[in-house]
C-alpha cells in the first residue's frame, strides 16, 4: 500500500529536520534533507540549488538561502513601498506569490499536481455579499472542512495570492477548504472583515453537507490578518452559542496593537512585512486608533476561555513573531490546549511557499498533522 504524499512530507520533515527551532540553520545547508523535502513536495529539482545572488541583508543576518532568494525576487520588481501608496495602488504591487512563481520558472520547478477541484460561491452578508472559493478533494465525501482566511493586513491581497496555502491544505489534509474573500479596508473599515469572517463560518455550518463537508469536523485557519480572523471566528462562535470549530490554526497571527514588542524592534525593517507596513494597515482598517484596544484587534486581552485546541505557527524574521508567542501564552493561560512551532531563517508569508522552501514543506506537514488530530477526536 502506498503512503499518501503528505505522509512522506511529514516523515521527511520529522526525520530530516527533527526540530525546526534547533536544526533549522543546519537543515538549510544540508543538501540531503532539502533534496528529500523537494522530492516529497513533488519537485524533481533540489531546493538546495536555489541560491541568492546578493549578500545577506542587514535586516536578516540569519535568513536561509531559499528565503533570501524569494526576497531578492520580490525586491527586484522595484515596486514602491506600500506605506507610500493608497490601498488601491498597493493592491497592484507584486506579491511574495509572484516572487515564488518567478523563482519556480527560473529553476524549472513544476507546480505540484493538484487533487482538488475548485468552485465559487457568493453569499449574502450584512451590507453586501462576499465570495467563497471551495477547494474540494477529487473523491467522495463527506470531508472535514477548513474555513480559511487569507492575510494582507485587512487591506490588500486576495484568494489568488493565498491560493497555494489553501490548495495545499485541501490536498494534503483531504478536506474541503473554504477560502473567504472578506471585504477589505479602507473601503470597508473595522469590524467589516471580522463580521464577514464569522458570517462565512456560519454559512459553512449551515451548508456543510452541500459542499461535501462533515458538519462535525469544521476547523478555522488563517495567516497574518487571517490568523486574527480565525481566532475571532472561534470566539464569536463561542459567544453566540453556535457550534465551535474543532481546531484553530493561526499562522503568524496579528494578535495585539503594540508595535514595540521584541520582534517588532528586532525585525522592524524585515521584508516582506515591516513595521511601517503594519502601521499603514492599522491606519487603513481602523476608524480610529481607539479601536486598537478592541479585543478583536487586541486578542491578547480578549476572553479566550472555552476555545478549541489551537496551533500557532510563527516565523523568526517577522515583526509578528512576538504576537504569535503572546497569543499562544494567553490561550494556554485560559486553559486552551495549544501547540506552537517557530521556524527559523524564514520571514512572514513563508507558509505557502512549499515549492521553494523546505521550511514551508515542514510547516504545512505540521499543520496538517495538527488538524488531522483534531478531526480524529
Automatic annotation (TrEMBL):
Signal sequence interval, chain numbering: 1-24
Secreted keyword on record: no
Pfam families for this protein: Abhydrolase_3 (PF07859)
Domain of life of the native organism: Bacteria
Occurrences of domain Alpha/beta hydrolase fold-3 (ranges): 146-351
Keywords in alphabetical order: Hydrolase, Signal
Keyword Acetylation: no
Name of the molecule in the record: Alpha/beta hydrolase fold-3 domain-containing protein
Species of provenance: Mucilaginibacter gynuensis
Lineage, top ranks: Bacteria, Pseudomonadati, Bacteroidota, Sphingobacteriia, Sphingobacteriales
Amino acid at each position: 500500500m502506498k503512503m499518501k504524499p503528505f505522509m512522506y512530507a511529514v516523515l521527511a520533515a520529522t526525520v530530516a529536520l527533527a526540530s525546526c527551532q534547533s536544526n533549522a540553520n543546519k537543515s538549510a545547508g544540508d543538501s540531503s534533507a532539502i533534496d528529500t523535502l523537494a522530492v516529497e513536495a513533488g519537485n524533481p529539482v533540489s531546493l538546495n540549488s536555489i541560491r541568492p545572488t546578493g549578500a545577506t541583508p542587514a535586516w536578516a543576518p540569519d535568513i536561509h538561502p531559499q528565503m533570501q532568494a524569494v526576497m531578492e525576487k520580490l525586491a527586484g520588481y522595484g515596486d514602491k513601498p506600500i506605506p507610500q501608496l493608497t490601498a488601491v495602488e498597493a493592491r497592484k504591487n507584486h506579491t511574495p506569490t509572484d516572487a515564488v512563481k518567478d523563482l519556480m520558472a527560473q529553476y524549472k520547478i513544476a507546480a505540484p499536481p493538484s487533487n482538488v477541484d475548485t468552485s465559487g460561491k457568493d453569499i449574502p452578508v450584512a451590507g453586501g455579499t462576499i465570495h467563497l472559493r471551495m477547494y474540494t478533494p477529487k473523491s467522495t465525501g463527506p470531508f472535514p472542512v477548513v474555513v480559511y482566511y487569507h492575510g494582507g493586513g485587512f487591506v490588500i491581497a486576495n484568494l489568488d495570492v493565498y491560493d497555494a496555502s489553501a490548495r495545499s491544505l485541501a490536498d494534503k489534509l483531504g478536506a474541503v477548504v473554504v477560502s473567504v474573500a472578506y471585504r477589505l479596508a479602507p473601503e470597508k473599515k473595522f469590524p467589516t472583515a471580522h463580521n464577514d469572517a464569522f458570517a462565512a463560518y456560519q454559512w459553512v455550518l449551515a451548508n456543510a453537507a452541500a459542499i461535501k463537508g462533515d458538519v462535525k469536523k469544521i476547523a478555522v485557519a488563517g495567516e497574518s490578518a487571517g490568523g486574527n480572523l480565525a481566532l475571532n471566528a472561534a470566539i464569536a462562535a463561542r459567544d453566540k452559542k453556535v457550534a465551535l470549530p474543532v481546531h484553530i490554526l493561526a499562522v503568524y497571527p496579528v494578535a495585539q496593537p503594540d508595535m514595540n514588542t521584541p520582534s517588532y524592534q528586532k525585525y522592524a525593517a524585515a521584508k516582506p512585512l515591516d513595521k511601517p507596513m503594519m502601521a499603514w494597515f492599522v491606519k487603513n482598517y481602523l476608524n480610529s486608533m481607539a479601536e486598537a484596544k478592541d479585543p478583536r484587534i487586541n486578542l491578547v486581552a480578549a476572553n479566550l476561555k472555552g476555545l478549541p485546541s489551537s496551533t500557532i505557527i510563527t516565523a523568526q524574521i517577522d515583526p509578528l513573531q512576538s504576537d504569535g508567542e503572546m497569543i499562544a501564552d494567553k490561550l494556554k493561560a485560559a486553559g486552551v490546549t495549544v501547540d506552537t512551532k517557530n521556524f527559523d531563517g524564514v520571514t512572514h508569508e513563508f507558509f505557502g511557499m512549499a515549492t521553494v522552501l523546505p521550511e514551508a514543506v515542514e510547516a504545512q506537514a505540521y499543520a496538517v498533522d495538527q488538524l488531522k488530530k483534531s478531526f480524529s477526536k
